[in-house]
Amino acid sequence: MDLDQLILRLLEAHPIADQTDLLEKLSAEGHELTQSTLSRRLKRLGVQKVQGRYRRVEAATQVLPDVTLTEVPPNLLVLRTAPGFAQALGLSLDADPVPGQMGTLAGDDTVFVAVLPERLAEVKAHLARVVAAR
Question: Which of 20, 73, 74, 102 has a CA between 20 and 30 Å from the CA of residue 60?
């Protein structure tokens, strides 16, 4: 049996509360690991301690809300999203600004992007690609 499959089988079959206990069970099955190696394997397998017991936790799929982009000449772009998402969207835009993007101001569901007037079309096209790629 593959080591990863054995780890998952042991976690399902026994209420394992610490890695030492799991290391002992693996040793009894003929697999000698260090605690750090086991810890890395558990992380890779998506195993976490939940309610005092190690379990495999399925990664949640990240669902991002729709974003609309509106041009407001001469130098403003407005991005509208779901309530609560504008701050994160503004931060992500500030982290990797495109030339001509001067700054952002984010509320709850709206982000204003200040742009040099001569770069408005370029920045709008770039942000449209970024929004579509999410």
Answer: 20
Listed as ranges, residues in the chain with pLDDT below 50 are none
d(CA 94, CA 104): 7
CA distance 104 to 6: 50
Q: Give the residue among 89, 80, 68, 76 at the shortest CA–CA distance from 117.
A: 76
- Distance from C-alpha of 71 to C-alpha of 77, rounded to nearest angstrom: 5
Pick among 3.30.1360.40, 3.40.50.300, 3.40.50.720, 3.40.50.10860: CATH of 68-133? 3.30.1360.40
> Tens digits of per-residue pLDDT, 44-56?
898 998 888 999 8
Q: What are the residues facing 71 on neighbouring strands?
A: 77
pLDDT at position 62: 61
**Residue 41 near residue 3 (C-beta atoms within 8 A):** yes
Query: Taking the CB of residue 112, how many other CB atoms lie within 10 A of it?
Result: 16
Bridge partners of 53, per DSSP, are 50
pTM over 0.70: no
